[in-house]
Amino acid sequence: MTLEALRKEIDRIDDQLLDLYNERLKIVEEVGRLKNSTGAPIYRPEREREILERLKRRNRERGGLLSDEAIEALFLELFAVARNYELPERVAFLGPEASFTHQAAEKKFGATSAYLPIHTIKGVFREVAEGKAKFGVVPIENSFNGIVSDTINCLSDYDLKIVAEVLIEIHHVLATKAEDVKQIKRIYSKDIAFGQCNQFLEDVGLDLVEQIPVESTAKAAQMAAKDPEAAAICSEVAARLYHLPILFKNIEDEGNNRTRFFIVSDFENRPSGRDKTTILVRLPHRPGALVDFLNDFKEAQIGLTKIKSHIVGGVSIFFIEFDGHKEDEKIRKIFEKHEESIKFLGSYVKEADDV
Ligand SMILES: O=C(O)C(=O)C[C@]1(C(=O)O)C=C[C@@H](O)C=C1
User: Fold this and answer.
1) Does the CB atom of residue 335 touch ligand 1 within 6 A?
2) ACT domain spans which residues (predicted)?
């Protein structure tokens, strides 16, 4: 046989192997579903060993060419692929546990998904980019504090897509093990949360009590749970997590404190019929560049829902959102025309107009 003919033979067998690997993975998927519904462990080394020994025996009986080591190497790799496949899709979020981002993640993925608290926004992006988590949940803007720069920087740097948005109403509670407000000697919270509850603290006579800022409201609940003379200003979930009784709910001075979150992943959504699209735009430095760009949206009758300027690495860019999906004819045309300037960040089901 010629080399070409031999290679054709190899290609034919590789095709069969590929189909068989996929067929195997289909069964593994079923096993994974079964295990995830009962909480059984994914990794079963004894079962892997049993398979290897059986295959080596069979290989020997049939006078196969593969060595024992080769069988081990090939099949151990296959088991690793299977285990990764069986793992439920992990969700990385800006932690710690019981943070408002955790709440947003649970709103989207339910209470039993595999969650991974990560301490920085960049860390969340990295987990998803490296395939350690399928989804990442990060805040993008808050009605009092505005846009979250770290999230925009990461959207600019990483090649992930926004696949959904979530809106959460931010409510604070005062939680404590103290029986009476008068017993409270110190309050733990995040610095901005103290500021959001000034009026309440004055009303209940806690305005002169020592305020101890910590890195998150979840941490505040954890600290207060260890000290019967302390209270925490935190979320309801954080109080529950640390078994801290809630004394007052909704203690923020102004209502309507909302935070919007993005869910990022490694794929793009298909159109749903009620989509919103987010892009970053870097325009040339010439008079009227922004006006000309926006005019194309006006002419195509595309409703802009947000435009914010932002500095990334010393360069001014625009964060822009509008109604519709990337695949809509009129949006495709604009993307073609401004290909050089636009970084597409995602088209996803519209949940909210604004925070
Ligand atoms: O049999 C199982 O329990 C599986 O999950 C399947 C499988 C395999 O690929 O054969 C994968 C992972 C386990 O460690 C053992 C075996």
Assistant:
1) no
2) 278-355
- For atom 3 of ligand 1, the residue with the nearest CA is 44
φ, ψ for residue 230, nearest 5 deg = -115, 160
Same fold, 173-248 and 271-355: no
> What is the complex's ipTM, to 2 decimals?
0.94
79 CB less than 6 Å from ligand 1?
yes
CA 136–ligand 1 middle distance (angstroms): 27
Please indicate whether residue 186, judged by its CB atom, sits closer than 6 Å to ligand 1: no
Q: From ligand 1's centre to the CA of 113, what distance in Å?
A: 21
Does ligand 1 have an atom closer than 6 angstroms to the CB of 82? yes
The correct answer on CATH 3.30.565.10 for the domain covering 271-355 is no
Burial of 47 (0-12, 13-18, 19+ CB in 10 A): exposed
State CA 345 to chain mean position distance.
14
User: How would you classify residue 273: left for phi > 0, otherwise alpha for psi between -120 and 50, otherwise beta?
Assistant: left
Per-residue pLDDT of the chain (355 residues; tens, 9 = 90+): 999 999 999 999 999 999 999 999 999 999 998 987 887 777 787 888 889 999 999 999 999 999 999 999 899 889 878 887 887 778 999 988 888 899 899 888 776 678 999 999 999 999 999 989 989 999 999 888 789 999 999 999 999 999 999 999 989 999 999 999 999 999 999 888 898 899 999 999 999 999 999 988 889 999 999 999 999 999 998 999 999 999 999 999 887 889 999 999 998 988 888 899 999 999 888 888 899 999 999 999 999 999 999 887 778 899 999 999 999 999 999 999 999 999 999 999 898 766 7
